[in-house]
Amino acid sequence: MKSPKFTVISLFPEMIQQMVAQGVVGQGLKHNIFELEVINPRDFTTDVHKTVDDRPYGGGDGMVLLCEPLELALKQVVGEDSRVIYLSPQGQLLDDDKVKELAESPHIVMICGRYGGIDQRIINLYVDEEVSIGNYVLSGGELAAGVVIDSVARFFPGVLGHQDSAHSDSFTNGFLEAPNFTRPQNYKGQGIPTALLSGNHKLIEEWREKVGQLVTLSKRPELMLNVDLTVESIRDLYLFWQGLSAQERDLLGLSGLSAEEFSLLLAAEEEL
Ligand code: 6GU
Questions:
Q1: DSSP character string of 85-138
Q2: 134: exposed, middle or buried (Cβ count in 10 Å: 0-12, 13-18, 19+)
Q3: CA of 104: how far to CAs of 7, 82, 107, 163, in Å?
Q4: Ligand 1 pocket mutation, candidates 11, 16, 93, 133, criterion most atoms within 8 A of CB
Q5: 139 shares its domain with 79
Q6: For labeling, which of 60, 151, 209, 261 is most exposed (least CB within 10 Å)?
Q7: Would 159 be classed as within a structural domain?
Q8: Could you tell me the residue range of the domain that residue 254 belongs to?
């Protein structure tokens, strides 16, 4: 089967290349698990000054990317199976569900605007959807393109060591991950949770799942409401929490959690 492909249209191609060259995603690219193509609208200009932007009609701050170089670039790269994304703070927020959906696409084309944006008529003609990476403004779409590539590529088989790592990470079951520990076994008076020293893989897996739920309840309680929880499973989680020593709760970063959070969660679940 053909490798999935990202095409990024950017005035700063090196920025994209550099972001994607490192770590497991960089290795994935090197091993052709996916393809990356970066094209510069400046290479599609027809005037001597290689003009890519101009002042906005009606006045205002920032320069707007011209239609023509973008259109010529798009025409060169967009095919039948391409999904064209404009990276913009006006877009739909990127989350774990969106990332997984994008990971199913054979060809993602991303247009990076700079401060001032791109001509709306290019969006009208070519863009399938707008995507934002958060409620703040970046000076250009490049960092957002890097975020999309990194988060999506993690779901391509072979990019992460373990075939299913991406699917067991934080968010993927709707909960955050349990904290991780490595050697030494004692660091400045802090030990290792006893369950992790048990060598019992089934027990460890169950323990991590419960701790992940407690971490979520403690740090991001609003995420608990996206998951179908039964009253019984909440009571189970409460009992598990009660079974942890004060020392272990500290070690796991759960000292902020109290019975109150469980009551609030129960009340919220009953309202749903
Ligand atoms: Cl995708 N682009 C820009 N320019 N700013 C953003 C963004 C994207 N997402 C959040 N802020």
A1: EEEEEEEEEP-HHHHHHHTT-SEEEEEEPBTT-B-HHHHHHH-SEEEESSSS--
A2: exposed
A3: 15, 12, 9, 16
A4: 133
A5: yes
A6: 60
A7: no
A8: 170-271
